[in-house]
Design brief:
Elements: H1 3-6, E1 8-9, H2 45-69, E2 73-80, H3 86-93, E3 102-106, H4 112-115, H5 121-124, E4 133-137, H6 146-149, H7 170-189, E5 192-200, H8 203-215, H9 225-231, H10 234-248, E6 255-259, H11 263-279, H12 290-304
Helix pairs in contact: 2-11, 3-11
């Protein structure tokens, strides 16, 4: 099953359904139409675990080539509602990666210093170097998600022309979407491969996971009253995600909308897509010149002669 192709959304009109005339269906993205509990191609969790292990091993090999080649950086972005499984997905999928070549950053409420900069500043400072994999657990997309649901947060950024919430109109958000698209294109031109995941969780499954966090004492630390307050804004968040994905998905930087009700499938799909995207880079170890081979042969003989 090619999950990279199945779950890729590269912009408005990217429908897999064709009209009778052969033109693409221009129907806008609707998250309500996207299944959250689908497990296409597989229903055996044991088989899925075995496939995940294979993906982890393949990724470990490609990471070494990525580092050796020192040409590309890979940025993996995870966005989702609370309890969608971002942390556990990162933990399982990246379990075989060398920690020295991978950095994970989680972005919470901006600090006073971060609010004094542009909205891309704090994440830009955490971008992976060439040869490395960077993971953003939440990202600059929070600026068109949480901030869009709570537009009063914009006032903390002290932006020119924004005095009250009433000044934040449709053009403001379209401007931010455009900034993000331009920023990602800029990163692409500098060798950064961006892989964006939206873990699509149902409201019912979130409820189950919240109850589990409350009922199991060792998971109580994961829950806060703020989680319930944000859950009450579920529809607002779904609309914000829908708008963000629709306005920032491009052929070069598509979004992957992954069913998240079954964690075992989420991990399998994510690991498969990461492997598919990185293998397209056709990574190779640096070629050793004849001069270098001659030098290595001399050093080898020197070691043998000790």
């Amino acid at each position: 099953m090619n999950y990279e192709k199945l779950y890729r959304f590269k912009g408005p009109g990217d429908s897999k359904k064709e009209s009778k005339k052969g033109s693409k269906n221009e129907k806008p993205l609707s998250l309500k139409d996207q299944k959250t509990n689908a497990t296409p191609g597989i229903s055996d969790t044991e088989k899925a675990s075995a496939m995940l292990r294979e993906h982890v091993q393949r990724l470990a090999v490609m990471q070494e080539k990525l580092y050796a080649q020192d040409k590309y950086a890979v940025l993996i972005i995870f966005q989702a509602m609370d309890a969608a499984g971002k942390d556990s997905t990162i933990c399982h999928v990246m379990s075989g990666v060398n920690p020295q070549g991978c950095d994970v950053h989680s972005f919470k409420t901006p600090s006073a210093a971060e609010l004094s900069h542009d909205f891309l500043w704090r994440t830009n400072a955490c971008l992976p170097e060439r040869g490395r994999i960077g993971i953003f657990n939440r990202s600059y997309y929070e600026e068109v998600l949480v901030v869009k649901v709570h537009p009063e947060l914009i006032l903390n950024q002290r932006l020119p022309g924004i005095r009250t919430v009433d000044d934040i109109d449709k053009n403001f958000w379209q401007g931010r979407y455009a900034d993000i698209v331009n920023y990602e294109n800029y990163l692409n031109s500098n060798g950064v491969v961006i892989i964006k995941f939206f873990l699509h969780l149902s409201k019912d499954e979130q409820k189950k996971r919240f109850l589990k966090r409350i009922d199991e004492t060792d998971k109580n630390w994961k829950f806060s009253t703020a989680d319930i307050k944000e859950r009450m804004l579920w529809d607002d968040y779904q609309k914000a995600y829908q708008d963000a994905i629709s306005n920032t998905a491009t052929p070069a930087n598509p979004w992957y909308i992954i069913p998240a009700d079954n964690k075992w499938f989420t991990r399998l799909a994510v690991s498969s897509i990461i492997n598919e995207r990185i293998v397209k880079l056709k990574l190779e170890y640096p070629e050793v010149t004849d001069t270098q081979r001659t030098e290595l042969a001399k050093i080898r003989q020197q070691l043998l002669d000790e």
